[in-house]
Amino acid sequence: MEKKLLYIRVKEEIERRIHAGEFQPGEKLPSEPALAKEFDVSRPTLREALKMLQREGALTSKNGVGTYVNERPSFIVNPLNKLRSLGEMIKSVGYKESETDVRIYSREAEPEWLEKLRTEDPVVVLERIRTADDQKVAFYYNIFPGDIASDHFESGFTGAIFDFLRDRLGIRIAYALTEICAVSTSDERDCKAAEVLGGGLILLKQLHFDEDDRPVFYSLDYLKSSAFKLFVRRD
């Protein structure tokens, strides 16, 4: 394994084994020395990976006893310091990811969208509901400049935006700027999201950039608060 972000690589491998059933709920993990030897990392690196999994609810550490795999969490973990698709987050905790009510349409851009995307009218909006085990957990508006999205989206679009942009358009999303916002009872879009998801929402406004620092798309991500756990690592 490369030294860069080594603890994250270890964390993701343990996570993969949990989801593959190699480590079962309630099972005790091998000892720290055994895991460190298996992954060819130092024990401090291994401990950092285990701590991340504990914070995300996948593991529990019992002093003097060991580290155990938890039952499947009742929430979806969203680490805000890591750029991940919602589908990836849903699947990472063992839920079946799907979507419904997909709509794609062109419309006049709102002033905020024009400012964020540095573009002219019109924009293309991808609107959809995301589900975890068939339960509605998120309502998304992905907003694209017309020169990027025009003629590329089809009404039957499904899947991950990041994969679509990379595979179909050769655009790689490098990072996003995220703003956590309150949801208003007077805003029409906020009210629609509350009606769809049942209230208790978190709104993430995210501007996604490519490797050349060009804004690619802007998203309004409404998350059902009871279904998500948001956290940020602060050093």
UniProtKB/TrEMBL annotation:
Keyword Transcription regulation: yes
Domain of life: Bacteria
InterPro entries, per the entry: Bact_HTH_transcr_reg, Chorismate_lyase_/UTRA_dom_sf, Tscrpt_reg_HTH_GntR, UTRA, WH-like_DNA-bd_sf, WH_DNA-bd_sf
Record GO terms (molecular function): DNA binding; DNA-binding transcription factor activity
Residues in HTH gntR-type domain copies: 4-72
One family name in Pfam for this protein: UTRA
Keyword list, A-Z: DNA-binding, Transcription, Transcription regulation
GO biological process: negative regulation of DNA-templated transcription
Database matches in CDD domains: WHTH_GntR
Entry annotated with the keyword Ribonucleoprotein: no
Record protein name field: GntR family transcriptional regulator
Organism: Cohnella terricola
Lineage, uppermost ranks: Bacteria, Bacillati, Bacillota, Bacilli, Bacillales
